[in-house]
Design brief:
Length: about 270
C-alpha cells in the first residue's frame, strides 16, 4: 500500500520494516493501545499497536504510521531536534490525512466490506467536528462562570448537544438525556482547552481529502511540505506553507467538510435505491 501511495512512503515503510520499528502483534499482557514515538538520535520513529482483528486495526495502523511518516520526514529535513516534532494543533493532520490516503486500499483489509468501513470511518470523522466544538464551548462556559453548580453545568452541556448534535437521542437513559455525557470526557478534567485541537486537525484532514481527490499529485506535495516542516513554523504559518485554509475564518467548516458530506449523502442515496 505505502509503495503505491508515493515513493516517499515506500522508502519510509521499507525503513520501518528493515529496522523492526513496529510492534503490532497482540500478546498476553500487552497494553491495548496505539502510539508513535521518536528515537531522535537514530532519526527513527517507532510505532506501537495491538492488533485484535477488528475494524480498528487498519484505523490505528494508518493513523500511527501517519505520525511516524511525518516524524521520519521532519528528522531528515530539519537542522535541529527541537524542530522534529510539530505542535499538537498540527500533529493530527498528518495522521488523520494518512487515514484518508489509505481509503483506496481498504479492500486489502476488509474485502467486499470495504465500502462499509469507508462510510463508517468518514461519518465518524465528520460528526466529530460538532462534538469537538461543543466540548470546547462547554469549557469556555464553565471557566467563565465558575459559580455554576454541577446540575447547571450538566444543563449547559444538554443545551450544547441540542445546538450542535440535535440528532442525539437518549430516550432510555435519563442521565445522558439531561446532559450527563460530558462527564466521561477526561480531557475536560486533565487537559483544559486541548480538545479543540482534534477538531482543527480533523478539518485539515478533510481538506486534504478533497484536495487529494481533485489533484492527487498537488495534494501529496502539500502534505510532504506539511510533514517536512516539523515544528519550525507557527500554527498559521504551517497551514499557509502547506496551502491549507485558516480554520478560524468564516465558512471554514463548510469548506473543509462539505466534500465529505457530499460523499456520505451520495452513499446514503445509493443505499436507499
Amino acid at each position: 500500500m505505502y509503495h503505491e501511495i508515493s515513493p516517499e512512503t515506500g522508502e519510509f515503510i521499507d525503513f520501518m520494516i528493515d529496522h523492526e520499528l513496529m510492534d503490532l502483534q497482540n500478546k498476553p499482557g500487552k497494553a491495548s493501545t496505539g502510539y508513535m514515538t521518536s528515537l531522535p538520535s537514530l532519526k527513527a520513529p517507532f510505532v506501537f499497536s495491538c492488533f485484535n482483528h477488528t475494524i480498528f486495526d487498519m484505523q490505528v495502523l494508518t493513523h500511527e504510521l501517519g505520525h511516524a511518516f511525518a516524524g521520519y520526514m521532519a528528522m531528515r529535513s530539519q537542522p535541529i531536534a527541537d524542530f522534529y516534532s510539530e505542535s499538537t494543533d498540527i500533529a493530527e493532520i498528518h495522521s488523520m490525512s494518512m487515514e484518508q490516503f489509505a481509503y483506496p486500499y481498504a479492500e486489502w483489509f476488509f474485502g467486499d466490506q470495504a465500502d462499509k468501513f469507508r462510510f463508517a470511518h468518514l461519518q465518524e470523522a465528520l460528526t466529530f467536528v460538532p462534538f469537538g466544538v461543543a466540548v470546547d464551548e462547554f469549557q469556555h462556559i464553565c471557566y467563565a462562570h465558575p459559580e455554576l453548580t454541577p446540575k447547571e453545568r450538566t444543563y449547559q452541556w444538554h443545551l450544547l448537544e441540542e445546538k450542535y448534535m440535535p440528532w442525539r437521542r437518549y430516550e432510555n437513559d435519563a442521565f445522558f438525556a439531561r446532559g450527563g455525557y460530558w462527564y466521561h470526557k477526561l480531557h475536560i478534567y486533565l487537559y483544559p482547552f486541548y480538545y479543540i485541537n482534534y477538531t482543527l486537525t480533523t478539518m485539515g484532514a478533510m481538506e486534504f481529502k478533497k484536495k487529494y481527490a481533485e489533484n492527487r499529485d498537488a495534494a501529496w506535495q502539500d502534505y510532504l511540505k506539511l510533514c517536512k516542516t516539523g515544528g519550525s513554523r507557527s500554527y498559521l504559518e504551517t497551514l499557509r506553507y502547506a496551502n491549507l485554509a485558516n480554520p478560524f475564518e468564516p465558512g471554514s467548516v463548510e469548506r473543509a467538510c462539505g466534500y465529505a458530506e457530499e460523499i456520505l449523502l451520495k452513499q446514503i442515496a445509493e443505499q436507499a435505491k
